[in-house]
Amino acid sequence: MARVFSVIVVGPKKTMLQRRMTTTVRLSHLSDDDLVSHVATVVGEERRATARLVAALVEFDARQLYLAQGCASLFTYCTNVLHLSEAATYNRTEAVRAAARFPTVLARLEDGSLTLTAVRVLAPVLTPDNCESLLAKAVHKSRREIELLVATVRPRPDVPVVIRKLPARAAANAASAQPDVAVARCGQPATALSPALEGDPSAKSALTTTPSTPCAAPPRAPAIAPLSAERFKIQFTASRQFHDKLRHAQDLTRHAIPNGNPAVILERALDLLIAHVEKRKLGSAERPRTPRSADPSSRHIPAAVRREVSLRDENQCAFIGRAGRCRERAFLEFHHVRPFADGGRSTADNIQLRCRAHNRYEAELVFGLAPVMDDDADPVVETYEEHP
After folding, report:
1. What are the CB-based long-range contacts (under 8 Å, 24+) for 55-61?
2. Is 371 left (phi over 0), alpha (psi -120 to 50) or beta?
3. Torsion sign over Cα 36, 37, 42, 47
């Protein structure tokens, strides 16, 4: 049965009432190339519509027309009358404020070089002097990259070292709702610092006792936020075991790290973890052994080949599609360009890095099979099963 989608097209305003035309498009009948083109066209239309809406809201806000509509603000009008979500309204109202000061924002929203989120993040630091340069640097950047750009323009001081015990209710909420984001602002007294941190004034000032207040659900704040070009705030909730290990590490490294700074300790721990994982998965070694030739009868990839491939592909998926190279750096796997089942050998010129999705995609193109990967398995090991 063909999938049918109804698309509402709003025509030009020829009378007091807008004329509307309903067009039924059978998207399932489009070829792959036509569907790719259609999606790009629709995205362009959405961008132009967004820019027109922001431009209209700029004038709407300047005239304060929301007051006559029974709303106290543009935000209330967008949510209560236009029925936009609060998140969508927040992005658009911040873009309205920015576009009112810098009309060039509208052109960048329309051509897609900036998104509403990008404009919202940039808005607080835009000035007549830096507007053009910042907007140019933010073109097609992710939110994380733009947050780093903003932190470079307006750096913030380092946050104090804080280690707090969560109340039971907040800890339960954090574990069920957002386990990777810290909840350390519930108005509860903090635990005492270890002796290694008692000489740190910033740490002491952070551990002031505040009146106990009921804790709501954890705030959905970013877990990692840039403070400046080279400094980041990293916040997370840890287990009792992690806490005890950190305290033990502080005591063991007292001579090397007198103030027991957790950031220094965790950075050293990450260095060891990364070296261990790179050695196991990517074949990294300080003193590489003489490489052995690949066994044609085995799909095992020698450490020397894994090492060469990971360096050559820069630890990034090497799949190149029509829109460019894949940017994925997580869930990487080693891919035989010429399949092993077809006689491909495990040599550097026949092995490339692939993210899990593109490794599966290319396997389906060749075999019509779906690779089944164990999340905890070595990335070299692959098995396949037919689609049901």
Report:
1. 55/99, 55/106, 57/92, 57/93, 57/96, 58/96, 58/99, 58/100, 61/96, 61/100
2. beta
3. positive
Q: Which residues contact 116 (CB under 8 A, 6 or more apart)?
A: 50, 91, 92, 94, 95, 109
Cβ atoms of residues 173 and 218 within 8 Å: yes
Beta carbons within 10 angstroms of residue 264's beta carbon: 13
Average pLDDT estimate for 349-356: 94
pLDDT at 264 exceeding the cut of 90: yes
Helix (H) or strand (E) holding 352: strand 351-355
DSSP three-state, residue 335: strand
* Cβ pair 223, 180 in contact under 8 A: yes
Output the average pLDDT for the chain: 79
174 burial type by CB count under 10 A (0-12 exposed, 13-18 middle, 19+ buried): buried
Q: Which helix (H) or strand (E) holds 304?
A: helix 303-312
**181-200 per-position pLDDT tens digit:** 333 333 333 333 433 344 44
The bridge status of strand 232-234 relative to strand 224-226 is: antiparallel
Q: What is the largest CA-CA distance in the chain?
A: 81
Tell me if residue 383 falls in helix, strand or coil.
strand
Q: Is the pLDDT of residue 91 over 80?
A: yes
Tell me the Ramachandran region of residue 112: left when phi exceeds 0, alpha when psi lies from -120 to 50, beta otherwise. Answer: left
Q: Taking the CA atoms of 194, 197, 201 and 205 in sequence, report the sign of the dihedral they define.
A: negative
Cross-strand bridge partners of residue 353: 334
Q: What are phi and psi of 73, to 5 degrees?
A: -155, 165
Is 147:121 a contact under the CB 8 Å cutoff?
yes
pLDDT of residue 200: 45
Q: How would residue 367 be classed by pLDDT, with cut points 50, 70 and 90?
A: confident
Distance between CA atoms of 188 and 172, rounded to whole angstroms? 15
Which pLDDT value is given to residue 369? 58
